[in-house]
Write a structure and sequence with these properties.
Length: 73
């Protein structure tokens, strides 16, 4: 069932996004399914506080993201 909720900023499951951060001099990656586009130059990433990568994102103030896609056969 579809329901029109109007124009709202909402965070909902999207295609899986790979989020990366640096751990000292090495990259580390995690998969995230809750990512929202909040502007032309910004995304919102929702991670539980228990995720291993959170500390590295907070420490460096940076992350990188890549949306994955595939073609069904």
């Amino acid at each position: 069932m579809k329901r029109n909720i109007g124009a709202k900023l909402a965070l909902y499951p999207t295609p899986v996004t790979v989020i990366g951060a640096m751990k000292e001099d090495r990259p580390t990656w995690t998969l995230v399914a809750h990512v929202g586009i909040i502007g032309h130059d910004r995304i919102l990433v929702s991670l539980a506080s228990s995720h291993f990568i959170n500390g590295f994102i907070n420490e460096n103030g940076k992350l990188s993201g890549k949306c994955l896609s595939f073609k069904s056969r």
